């Protein structure tokens, strides 16, 4: 019996096409054809990307009549946000230090007597 490794959110967002698909459906659900029309790749390739996104829980596919619509599940991106927090804190610290240096370098206005 072969055990297939479960995909995770990081694998899903590693691909630029999948990130673009997530951006497309961030504000509204779209059917598979509407998504595929936005890319210069085959429909089966887009279907494979969507399958991976669904396996990771980043999207759900909802059937409405004969159409299949993709909806973003943004809460699944919290894992990425949590992973990025230490980096964000580090950059914020560095930018704050840069602000201090720049303020010290800024020439002060001298008043005329």
From TrEMBL:
CDD domains: HTH_ARSR. Residues 1-92 form the HTH arsR-type domain. It holds the Pfam family HTH_5. PROSITE patterns: HTH_ARSR_2. It comes from the Bacteria. Keywords: DNA-binding, Transcription, Transcription regulation. It comes from Ohtaekwangia kribbensis. This is ArsR/SmtB family transcription factor. InterPro entries: ArsR-like_HTH (IPR011991), HTH_ArsR_DNA-bd_dom (IPR001845), HTH_MetalResp_TranReg (IPR051081), WH-like_DNA-bd_sf (IPR036388), WH_DNA-bd_sf (IPR036390).
């Amino acid at each position: 019996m072969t055990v297939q490794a479960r995909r995770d959110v990081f694998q899903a967002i590693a691909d630029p096409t999948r990130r673009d698909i997530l951006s497309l459906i961030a504000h509204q659900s779209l059917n598979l054809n509407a998504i595929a029309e936005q890319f210069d790749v085959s429909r089966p390739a887009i279907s494979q990307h969507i399958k991976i996104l669904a396996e990771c829980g980043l999207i759900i596919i909802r059937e409405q009549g004969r159409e299949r619509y993709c909806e973003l599940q943004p809460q699944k991106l919290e894992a990425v946000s949590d992973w990025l927090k230490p980096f964000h804190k580090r950059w914020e610290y560095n930018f704050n230090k840069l602000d201090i240096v720049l303020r010290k370098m800024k020439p002060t206005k001298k008043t005329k007597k």
